[in-house]
Write a structure and sequence with these properties.
Structural class: alpha+beta
Strand order of the largest sheet: 1-4
Largest sheet: 2 strands, parallel
Distance between the termini: 25 Å
Number of helices: 1
Oligomer: single chain
């Protein structure tokens, strides 16, 4: 982690070689957030699909 970083922005392509990369990352981040096993000192995460 970088010091004094408040937001994380990740840009992911939606589909690559018939795999839905965006959905994989979204599901991972949602599970991480809901489980509360790993607490990140962030105000928010922005996931951009292109």
């Amino acid at each position: 982690m970088m010091h004094e970083v408040e937001y994380l922005v990740i840009a992911v392509r939606q589909f690559y070689r018939s795999q839905n990369d965006f959905e994989k990352i979204y599901t991972f981040l949602e599970t991480l957030s809901i489980s509360n096993r790993l607490k990140l000192p962030l105000r928010g995460i922005l996931l951009i699909g292109y």
